[in-house]
Model the fold of this input.
Amino acid sequence: MTLKDKIKVKTTIVEMDGDEMTRIMWKMVKEKLLFPYLDMDIDYYDLHVSNRDKTDDQVTLDAAHAIMKYGVGIKCATITPNADRVKEYNLKHMWKSPNATIRSTLDGTVFRKPIIVKNIKPFVSKWEKPIIVGRHAYGDVYSNTEMYVDEPGTAELTFTPSDGGEVQKEVIKEFAGPGIIQGMHNTDDSIRSFAKACFTYAYDQKVDLWFSTKDTISKTYDARFRDIFAGEYKNWESKFTDAGMEYFFTLIDDAVARVMRSEGGILWALKNYDGDVMSDMIASANGSFAMMTSVLVSPRGYFEYEAAHGTVQKHYYKHLNNEATSTNSIALIFAWTGGLRKRGELDGTEDVVGFANKLEEAALETVESGVMTGDLLVVAEKDPKNRKVGTEEFIDVIANNLKNKL
Ligand code: NAP
Ligand code: MG
Done:
């Protein structure tokens, strides 16, 4: 294909490269599936852990600011340094998770959506359409204060206004013996921005939005979440009604029961702890962690797409040892297609949206034709035509299927 036949992506794409096995696949995906067909301007940030170290993590902040400039970013998986990684890569510092840095810069909510193929059935047989989980990633038990007390006494909750106003005090418990106490918080600003991101993403995906808390028990804390969501819904009600969509608030117990009986096709918004627990349930019920996409949606209209999985470290060490690998690139491919589709929608370029759709079809058809990586083979319906292929061959078959569609 010559340059003039290629599909032009109008606005610059922010690309964030990553680490280990996903870095290897990322390069293949670009070279075999994207560059042959797309004429793109890329603003490239190398988030390889050594480059983050070299730039004192400035490169991560620069990438986040580039997403704010252009609107859409696509990210490879990256190492979050721990003590082992500091040694392995001889790092100056145990840098923060790039995802946490980007999330706090863009003020976003993360949505996780399973990628569904016909020959891998979710363990819940009623689920036909994806269940997207939106998790509030701020506050509650994740930034709590807790105490063990080993004698009788009084535990109190105290709030002291900064302007010297009247102190508020409530007794938590008169302890007769040893026990435990926990204090946690959230802020109206954070809850409101979570609500905004959920309504924005549900509308973008044209799925109903469900939100659930334990507001019957937690009459102030969880009820505040419910009320802020109800307030935000006022800004969306007519749009939702016109699109035939619903916003539905219910008690979390009821939501769990309903989700199990639903056909899917919903965005389930959850508080921090509920989202942590439920997203892993949804992911594993869908078969493979490698079939889950993740998108960060900022209430200010920025989008960042990535795979939900990590850098697949174990496979990378095999690769370095010249052993054969069979690593699944589908979620990385869907990070690109998700970002390209959003770019096409924002730019009004239908051919870019069309290309993203065809690349997704090519990837899904590959798996549905029985060509699979090892993680999929073990969860797919048994079929004599199923065959396990290596990391690169998998991408080559997708490339061939894609070529036949264009
Ligand atoms: P991981 O990379 O998600 O891999 C965990 C295991 O899941 C793998 O060993 C593999 O199982 C399976 N797996 C995950 N993705 C796969 C794929 N595409 N194809 C086939 N199998 C896949 O998690 P981790 O090993 O705990 O973390 C490795 C590094 O990733 C860490 O440094 C962590 O900080 C980072 N991380 C980054 C992100 C991100 O950037 N968003 C997210 C999570 C973790 P088998 O070994 O059984 O084949
Ligand atoms: Mg979890």
DSSP finds 15 helices and 18 strands in the chain. The mean pLDDT is 95. The two ends are 11 Å apart (CA to CA).
